[in-house]
Amino acid sequence: MAYTAISRLCATNVTPQTASVFVYASAAICFLGASAGGVLTMLGHHLLDGIEVGERWWPRTRDTFLSPENSKS
After folding, report:
1. Which of 55, 71, 72, 73 is deepest in the core (most CB within 10 A)?
2. C-alpha to C-alpha distance for 42 and 28, rounded to whole angstroms
3. What is the pTM (predicted TM-score) of this model?
4. What does the pLDDT profile of the chain (73 residues) look like in tens digits?
């Protein structure tokens, strides 16, 4: 995606004074696409690695919740 946007941007041959919204949008797509591609290349193989969370963040079972009559008000 970034390659396509960069090639279209280079083919337009515009000066900064005559740049249109298309040129600025294409430059933004180039930047975002190249940045995302670089990040995924560097970190992509670890993207879905499992992690271990503390016991505090484990899902609670139904019996650990307080009933309304046992809760402090």
Report:
1. 71
2. 21
3. 0.48
4. 667 767 777 777 777 777 788 878 888 888 888 888 888 888 888 778 888 988 888 887 666 566 666 556 5
